[in-house]
Known about the structure:
Blueprint: E1 2-3, H1 5-13, H2 15-23, E2 26-28, H3 33-49, H4 54-63, H5 78-95, E3 98-99, H6 103-106, E4 107-115, E5 118-130, E6 133-142, H7 158-167, E7 171-178, E8 184-191, H8 194-212, H9 235-239, H10 242-248, E9 249-251
Parallel strand pairs: 1-5, 6-7
Antiparallel strand pairs: 2-9, 3-5, 4-5, 5-6, 7-8
Helix pairs in contact: 1-2, 3-4, 3-5, 4-5, 7-8
Amino acid sequence: MTYSYTRISQYLTCPRRYRHRYLDGWKEKDRRAAVLFGRAFELALGAYFRREEPGEILFREWSAYKDQGLQFSNHDTWDRMLEQGIMLLIRFCQDNRIQIRQPRRNLQIKFTRPLGKNEFVAYIDGIGKLDGKWCLLEWKTSSGRYPEEPEGLLALDPQLVCYSWMTGIPEVAQVVFVRKRLVEIQYLRATITDQQRQEFGYLVEDTIRRIESAEFLPHSGIRFPQNPCSSCPYLGLCLGRQDLAGAALTRRPGAEDIDWLDELVY
């Protein structure tokens, strides 16, 4: 079995959600504009480092989603997000704080790690220099600034800890492209310790053990005012509401063959 940060984090969020997605074959429909824009923007960043035309790449990739009934948040529109993306690319070029040698080799790098009979895989956005210092790089697009206080907060980011564990690189950086009226780019740095990497490895091993033991109890998130279940795309399955499930999800062909899991007694 091949595991990744996404799979592990999905299980830790809610084991039943993990089962719906990875075993039952249900997958969220890609309609969130912010997510799809982020994918297009990352491709444009790759073009920038390869000395291609990033603006053209962003327009081409973002245009592919224009007529797909996207779900926009706040006051976002397709045109406004494109404009913000172009301004962010211009600002990034002007800042010139990131250098990546051999971009075809050092962007979207695949790392694998054997875990007994299993394998863990991670795709790192980039490895390069921020202000002249080597580090692992992660791109993020957001409609709001990431918190910077208290000092050292970024070192607690589980995804960055995962990537440091996979690569052995302690120095990490998150480059946040903030979409707002006056666009902004945050360059956030952190150092991941040996203890953090070791503890994450233990967490991965324990989570895989629970998955392979078929422990898929639900973690209900309904506790107002915080209610993550209400925004979960798998809510319809937990409520037995096929109308909600059909609106938010699609199912992998043949996945119904494992519906025997519904008969498990915990």
